[in-house]
Write a structure and sequence with these properties.
Elements lengths: L15 E2 L10 H7 L16 H20 L7 E4 L2 H19 L6 E5 L4 H11 L4 E5 L9 H9 L4 E3 L13 H10 L3 E5 L18 E5 L10 E5 L27 H36 L5 E3 L10 E6 L4 H7 L3 E2 L15 H5 L4 H5 L1 E5 L6 H21 L1
Parallel strand pairs: 1-11, 3-4, 3-5, 5-6, 6-7
Antiparallel strand pairs: 2-8, 7-8, 9-10, 10-12
């Protein structure tokens, strides 16, 4: 196993963070690079008539290149946003509104899947009120899209297909290359929400025939409030901007860019590219270690495909116990019952429901996320604490 990480820790000695799909801490190396852009290098990157602005603009272009390099894109195809939610909205609404405005007689049909992030599903549903049609496809019990069903759907016609690269709740990886090939064959734009994939698995927009790809900074050890959208230039993916302004970001996303945040995302992408392969192996070892530590509990179920998944995500449920009860007994461990956007909800996870998971099993499901700061000692302690909590709850039933 690789050497243990050095990400900063909370002062509480026993606090263990296992919610890396919700957010990540800012990597100290990223923080070091971004700090000067708050103080001494404070120029407006759009004021290029003097050295302060030109310096900021140049730094942003370097960051843009670093992001593009991680997905085999052209830097000119990267548009900075506030995060993946904005990028998803811009991709989906922008593509359909462009057709409505410039090609009103062309089919406007969006195809997505039932396990998508809510910002994708809600964006697509909003477009129905604007005259678009929507097809929400099912997934199998392993969380994967049936490509035969997708092709049957595409034969009926589609303008845009939006499929998440890595699911934020269950960590499964969709076959982007196969999906992209089908979309290109049937003339549909292919958008993927890659918030949980960027910097964690290899992505190649050319090989995978991806037209639009959404990125989030705070999922890869950059700050919150920064993300990006890849927009293909050839063949060109055309979008209508979400809002008006000064025409920054090639007219796709107006507003003054924050150099500190853009530089941070670029540096996070650079680090991820260098360390991705080794980190994936380390996290896979930790996942195996964690599951082995929980073996004695019995009645444990892993949701989602057992192999086609990122190594830093486990979605587990335990027979006869509720996730909230387990979490209440291990307050020192940061866990979640689903996506950060829905963790406060008392409803059953719609992602697990789409997999056919029973309400009783879904009630017991917890998402456990490992990351750059997770140590083997924490894995052992967390497994022991959860094992004890489940045993105590079962003995009470």
């Amino acid at each position: 196993m690789a050497s243990e990480p050095t990400i900063a820790r909370r002062p509480e000695a026993d606090a263990i963070y296992l919610d890396y799909q919700a957010t990540t801490p800012v990597d100290p190396r990223v923080l070091e690079v971004m700090l000067p852009w708050f103080t001494t290098r404070f120029g407006n990157p759009h004021s290029t008539g003097h050295a302060f602005g030109e310096e900021a603009a140049a730094a942003i272009e370097v960051a843009r290149g670093g992001i593009a390099g991680l997905i085999a894109a052209d830097p000119r195809e990267i548009v900075f946003t506030s995060g993946a939610t904005e990028a998803n909205n811009l991709a989906i609404k922008g593509a359909m509104r462009f057709l409505a405005r410039h090609r009103p007689h062309q089919l406007r049909r969006v195809v997505t899947v039932a396990t998508e992030h809510k910002c994708v599903l809600e964006s697509a549903r909003e477009l129905v009120s604007e005259g678009c049609s929507l097809e929400v496809m099912p997934v199998g019990g392993d969380g994967l899209l049936d490509l035969v069903q997708l092709e049957e759907c595409l034969r009926e016609g589609a303008s845009l297909v939006s499929i998440m690269a890595v699911n934020n709740e269950i960590g499964v990886i969709q076959d982007l290359a196969a999906i992209g090939a089908l979309c290109r064959r049937y003339g549909a734009l292919f958008h993927t929400d890659a918030a949980q994939a960027f910097g964690k698995i290899p992505l190649d927009v050319e090989a995978m025939k991806i037209d639009l790809l959404s990125i989030s900074g705070h999922k890869i050890y950059a700050p919150k409030g920064i993300g990006a959208l890849y927009i293909r230039r050839r063949p060109r993916a055309r979008l209508e901007p979400l809002f008006s302004g000064g025409g920054q970001e090639r007219g796709m996303r107006s507003g003054t860019l924050a150099p500190a945040l853009c530089v941070a995302l670029g540096e996070a992408a650079r680090i991820a590219g260098l360390e991705m392969a080794e980190e994936a192996l380390r996290l896979r070892d930790l996942a195996v270690r964690f599951m082995t530590g929980l073996d004695p509990v019995g009645g444990m179920i892993l949701h989602g495909h057992p192999d086609r998944r990122i190594p830093g995500n486990l979605n587990l449920s335990f027979d006869d116990v509720a996730a909230h009860d387990v979490m209440a007994r291990v307050p020192q461990i940061a866990l979640s019952t689903g996506s950060a956007c829905t963790s406060a909800s008392v409803e059953t996870s719609y992602v697990l429901a789409a997999l056919g998971v029973s309400p009783a099993q879904a009630k017991g499901a917890m998402r456990i996320g490992f990351g750059r700061g997770t140590t083997s000692a924490e894995i052992d302690a967390a497994a022991a604490a959860i094992l004890s909590a489940v045993a105590a709850l079962r003995s009470r039933n």
